[in-house]
Design a protein that fits this description.
Layout lengths: L2 H30 L1 H14 L3 H19 L3 H5 L5 H19 L4 H6 L2 H5 L5 H35 L5 H28 L3 H17 L3 H4 L5 E2 L2 E2 H8 L2 H8 L2 E3 H23 L9 H28 L4 E3 L10 H4 L1
Antiparallel strand pairs: 1-2, 3-4
Helix pairs in contact: 1-2, 1-8, 1-9, 2-8, 3-5, 3-8, 5-9, 5-10, 8-9, 8-14, 9-10, 9-13, 9-14, 13-14, 14-15
Length: 334
């Protein structure tokens, strides 16, 4: 079989397995939460029912292709990897993700359809998870097109001698980064009814995670807080550290747990924001605000503790690279 076709088929199989898992989760929600599925379908179809959705998709594919192959380092290194795209990817996400999330709730407020949506026989969870799944579906479609174009280019350059496992895990890491930033961007959209403000806030809220790895260049490397290296703590809290495993072809429990837990916290904040209409303005309004703030802080502490725990005790660490270049030999481990 032609090496190019074999490499493409191998990647298609990996993508198919991943999509089956995602669709199974979506199907579970659709089967148990009809209202959430209706909200998801409305937002997903609405995004691609006008040229704007396709323009954003093309722009995303263009930006990822330029970031992967335009820098001279790609040809200087002479390696069929996505190291250059890994470097620029957070910046691309700071533009693309807010473009998706800015209209999730701000557009409902602007058009006056938020009241209609809130009067449907659906709870706050249905609305939030439905809109989140729609945004995640839009991002997943864009990422698949980007992966296909990038993979075809790499396959032509390498004549089929490509590590499909490394490419798959790298894009899997991109997906986790994207769906996590979508959840954070949704928080910004729930705070405002203006699309421009929603875009700016979405970028600002995601910027700390995207630029946490550069903390030592801003703060310095000797800052201590209660005996803990403050700079290292900030760097560890960003997306660069958990994405590093995916970028090296490894799927680990700690990395997956980080993105899942941060996403859960962000979605919970969205539920608090959409549910504040129930208690804002009442005599216990301030008390409820402090109550939910305490809950959010507790969730953040729990998330940080769980991430540290998983990093120290990685239950699963699967190396999908063809040469197992990111695995330790038994003798080395011993």
């Amino acid at each position: 079989m032609n090496p190019n076709i074999a490499a493409l088929l191998n990647l298609v199989v990996m993508d198919a397995i991943f999509l089956c898992i995602v669709l199974a989760v979506f199907g579970l929600v659709a089967g148990t939460k009809r209202a959430a599925f209706a909200v998801m379908k409305r937002n997903f179809v609405g995004y691609f029912s006008n040229p704007t959705g396709y323009v954003f998709l093309c722009i995303f594919v263009f930006l990822t292709s330029v970031a992967a192959f335009w820098p001279y380092e790609f040809f200087n290194q002479n390696l069929a990897t996505l190291d250059q795209l890994n470097y620029w990817y957070p910046l691309i996400m700071l533009v693309f993700i807010p473009a998706i999330t800015m209209s999730i709730w701000a557009e409902e407020k602007r058009a006056g359809t938020d009241e209609l949506l809130l009067t449907l026989p659906a709870d706050d969870f249905d609305i939030v998870i439905g809109k989140y799944m729609a945004a995640a579906g839009i991002f997943t479609a864009s990422l698949l097109f980007s992966q296909l174009s990038t993979f075809v280019t790499l396959t032509i350059l390498t004549d089929g001698g490509l590590d499909t496992g490394l490419i798959f895990t790298t894009y899997l890491g991109y997906w986790f980064v994207g769906v996590t930033m979508i959840a954070i961007g949704m928080v910004a959209s729930f705070l405002t009814g203006n699309l421009t403000v929603g875009f700016i806030l979405g970028a600002l809220f995601n910027a700390p995670l995207a630029f946490a790895s550069l903390a030592n260049t801003v703060i310095g490397s000797e800052q201590q807080l209660f005996g803990v290296n403050f700079v290292e703590l900030i760097k560890e809290s960003g997306i660069a550290r958990p994405f590093d495993d995916f970028g090296r072809g490894v799927i680990s429990t700690s990395s997956v747990a980080y993105f899942v837990l941060v996403t859960v916290v962000a979605l919970y904040i969205c539920m608090v924001l959409i549910g504040r209409r129930h208690w804002t303005g009442g005599k216990d309004g301030n008390t409820m605000a402090y109550h939910y703030l305490a809950r959010i802080i507790a969730l953040l502490v729990l998330t940080g503790s769980a991430v540290v725990l998983f990093r120290n005790r990685d239950v699963v660490r699967k190396d999908l690279t063809e040469g197992k270049v990111s695995s330790l030999a038994p003798a080395t481990t011993k």
